[in-house]
Automatic annotation (TrEMBL):
Protein family: Belongs to the glycosyltransferase 43 family.
Protein name: Galactosylgalactosylxylosylprotein 3-beta-glucuronosyltransferase
Membrane topology: Single-pass type II membrane protein
A GO MF term: metal ion binding
Enzyme Commission identifier(s): 2.4.1.135
Leader sequence segment: none
């Protein structure tokens, strides 16, 4: 009899213990839920600032970087500009200056800016290349200078904008800014713009460019003191500045102080970079960036020309695969 009572007591104690554990566990879980809900309701703003998309945006502050992109109509144009737009969206201090080789701006480029939500920090310009300097048919792309008219148009727009801002004492526009020639057939790391933001007033910044000039990398050559001695270019190394357009950026005060600095149709192939830089700096005064020119943050990749033989056959029959679509 006593043994039966003790057994019942043990069962009762075990039952009460289990109920107590479940009760306290439930309270603990509810407090956790309340805590999560509280964070969701009251801490979302803080979380977004520290852990959300904003946390991954590099270079939130810094000089305005005017990224100049000449472009022209071709099958891969939208793809190229879309890729660039995704980079620029991640770098808030970039202002995109797109200049089309055309007699007017196009809906295609306008739509790229709309879809990427970059209309507020971009301008869409146009400047048609003179007929005698246009490539024809199967001309190789190096036969005639490209982008001259478009880059010069961008330089004029930037100079006018900065002059007007200075006259109006607009603090947000009269502060230090930088100009970078950002062609649409290259690949860019967002880290590059962190480096461009370091360019000092009165300086031209330089860095390596990958896959260009017949080399894995073209780069400035520095001495022990970190000064630019020259460049390791294999193609026409006798040029005053044997570097690629993607390998330098210019403090805008230099462009204001030297209005004659621009690009030219009269220089021989490969001398466009030297043509503008000769008015602005010498090699020793250039500012080496990208870990003392040891890091590659931009590549001259280019896009393969698509094979559209089937499309051409369709067009001969009055049809096209992209009818009513923008590709």
């Amino acid at each position: 009899m006593n043994q039966e009572i003790r057994l019942r007591l043990k069962h009762l104690v075990l039952f009460v213990s289990i109920i107590g554990f479940l009760f306290f566990y439930s309270l603990s879980s509810n407090r956790g839920c309340e805590s999560d809900a509280s964070r969701s309701e009251y801490g979302a703003e803080s979380w977004a600032a520290d852990q959300g998309r904003e946390a991954f945006l590099p270079n939130r502050k810094g000089p305005t970087i005017y990224a100049v992109t000449p472009t022209y109509s071709r099958p891969v144009q939208k793809a190229e500009l879309t890729r660039l737009s995704h980079v620029i969206r991640l770098v808030p201090n970039v202002f995109w200056v797109i200049v089309e080789d055309a007699s007017q701006t196009s809906t295609l480029v306008t739509n790229v800016l709309k879809r990427s939500d970059l209309q507020a920090r971009s301008v869409q310009l146009f400047a048609k290349t003179p007929t005698n300097f246009k490539l024809k048919g199967k001309d190789p792309n190096w036969l005639k200078p490209r982008g001259v008219e478009q880059r010069n148009t961008a330089l004029k727009w930037i100079r006018d904008r900065l002059k007007q801002a200075a006259q109006n004492n607009a603090d947000d526009e009269s502060t230090h800014s930088v100009v970078y020639f950002m062609d649409d057939d290259n690949t860019y790391s967002t880290e590059l713009f962190d480096e461009i933001s370091k360019i000092e007033t009165g300086k031209v910044g330089v860095w390596p460019v990958g896959l260009v000039g017949g080399l894995m990398v073209e780069k400035p050559v520095l001495n022990r003191d970190g000064l630019v001695l020259g460049f390791n270019s294999a193609w026409k190394p006798e040029r005053p500045f044997p570097l690629d357009m993607a390998g330098f950026a210019i403090s805008s005060d230099l462009l204001l102080d030297n209005p004659q600095a621009q690009f030219s149709y009269e220089v021989e192939r490969g001398y466009q970079e030297s043509e503008i830089l000769r008015h602005l700096t010498i090699a020793h005064d250039m500012q080496p960036l990208a870990n003392q020119c040891k890091d590659v943050l931009v590549w001259h990749t280019r896009t393969e020309t698509p094979k559209l033989d089937a499309e051409k056959a369709l067009q001969k029959g009055g049809k096209k695969s992209n009818d009513g679509m923008e590709v």
